[in-house]
Amino acid sequence: MVGFAGVVPLVAVLSEGGEAVSKTSRDGGDESTEASCTEAPETLRERYARGKLTHEEFERKLEALMETESPERAERRVEREREGARRRPPPRSTARMPPGLSPRIPSTTATSGSPEPWTITSGSASHMPAGRPGARINSAPSGDGGAGLMCSGVVPAAVTRVVADGIHLLEVGWPEPIGANAYLIDDGEVTLVDAGLPVGRRSLAAELSAAGHGVGDLDRVLVTHYDLDHVGGLRGLDADVPVHVGAADARLVDGTWAPPPAHPKGAFHRLLRRLFPLSGDVRPVTDGDRVGGFRAVHAPGHNPGHTVFLHDDLGAALLGDLVRERDGRFRPPPWVDSYDLDRLAESVDRVAGESFEHACVGHGRPVSPDGGDRLRRLAAEL
Fold it and tell me: CA-to-CA distance for 208 and 352, rounded, in angstroms?
């Protein structure tokens, strides 16, 4: 979650700063800057291949590059990259590339030392290969060579990640520790799970479109818990669908439960619910409730109403902030970000007893297909 002490300045930055930075980039940039942006990823890959950059340094520098380009320049550059990709032969080797990184598609591993277990797809939904547990591709379809992933903070709209059949990661979160993932589940009905910050790194509507759906296709929204980086994106979504949230968090939002002001997160939530109330058709859920193909599992600790949503048919667990993923391992959220660490440990143990393959976390990368095993390892350590 976004730290409680930073909510007011963060909201100001998100609402005003993004537009200003984008305007500065459009008005003040020049072609030399644009050219250097295009060439920089190639330079980074070469330095990595020569052993002059560690994998962590490569990923960090690549993330920094992705903040430097306006949408207009990104579009022009992608067109140039597409033309160049048609003319030049593919690279002969991927030796010494980061795990899961093809010569033209950067990625972040979900498990240490192994390729990322979800599929990168690019282009329209009609080009999207069927997802499956463990599926991945190492070249981009539709001829753009993944160019839109390379340098720009604005990735082309039709880019999505398929965790498994019917499970899409929507990358709306800014780099950690700011922002959280959202997910789209398509099991015949279309469900959005969490919604990211009010202003995401990528547009939530565009990410939905990349997964082959519009806002009007949604049947419901599931909220794992009430925090700014999980509910903020709902404000701009304009979706006329029910929003399901854990009963205790629903009471937090509507004011019938007052969080303790002496607790740092309690003070944060007292302010947040004034700035970002949940509106519309809010439906509290309790442990064991069925919502479409999902089963609600009350998992308090991080929040009083924190709820994990299990989809037994898909083998998926939408974990929210029950745990965070880093370097392929799960860790509990920090104490300052949780109401009750003892209850959190009990919740981890309880959810670890469930059967699932695909662990969809709010922070970090989804772990698939051994997500359940990873959570059980953490439960044994707590």
Answer: 29
**pLDDT for residue 54:** 73
Q: Is 119 helix (H, G, I), strand (E, B) or coil?
A: strand
- Structure confidence at residue 128 (pLDDT): 35
Report domain extents, the chain: 25-88+102-107+119-149, 159-381
Name the one residue in this structure whose structure tokens are 């998100």. 14
- Residues 346 and 301: beta-carbon distance below 8 Å: yes
Q: SS3 letters for 286-324? A: CCCCEECCEEEEECCCCCCCCEEEEECCCCEEEEECCCE
Bridge partner list, 295: 290, 310
pLDDT of 64: 61
Contact 28, 142 (CB under 8 A): no
Token duo for residue 129: 């290969």
Percent of the chain that is helix, strand, coil (3-state, to 5): 40, 15, 45
Cβ atoms within 10 Å, residue 154: 21
E strands, the chain, are 119-122, 159-164, 167-170, 182-186, 190-193, 220-223, 243-246, 282-285, 290-291, 294-298, 307-311, 316-320, 324-326, 329-331, 358-361
Taking the C-alpha atoms of residue 168 and residue 314, their distance in angstroms, rounded to an integer, is: 12
Q: What is the pTM of this model?
A: 0.63
Residues 6+ apart with CB under 8 A from 359: 317, 319, 325, 330, 366, 367, 368, 371, 372, 374, 375
Q: In sequence order, what are the beta bridge partners of 168?
A: 162, 184
Smallest CA-to-CA distance from 80 within 122, 26, 44, 31 is with 31
Q: Which residues of the chain have pLDDT under 70?
A: 1-50, 53, 55-56, 58-160
User: Would you state the pLDDT for residue 68?
Assistant: 55
CATH topology of domain 159-381: Metallo-beta-lactamase; Chain A (3.60.15)
